[in-house]
Input
Amino acid sequence: MKRHPGLVPLSRDHHHGLVMAQRLILGRSTNPRADWPADRGQQAVRLIDFFETDLRPHFEAEEAHVFPAANRNLADGADRTRALIAEHETMRAMIRDLAADPTAALEERLTAFGELLRAHIHTEERILFEQMQAACDEEVLEALGARIAEHGRDARGARCRL
Output
């Protein structure tokens, strides 16, 4: 299904998140021209930065706007968003732990974060967004898109990026 314009910015963000997840899972970039370090310690630093500049604002936009709309408009919205918020919290905790000790078991921790991020994005794209597009009126999706755009401007003077 084609993505509604109001959700396109978040879907674009999800693409960047999937690139990060793939790099973390593989421990390398599949793009030979990418500026991605081979050293797992340097990858951890990149992930923490990516979280702070991209994931955190993206999670905040979803929690403030997308998830409440899903709760109001989807039959299983409350259960679905509760699970997605729990995954956000798990990723926040993983980043806090990584920042506190950026050396121990990096291979496992970075891979685990990448796998969780990939699964989380797939759930949002393939299930949540599809259900919202099917269940919500055009006006609801347009208003949601406007709130997401405004949230990004308020947070950083620009659209939230993942």
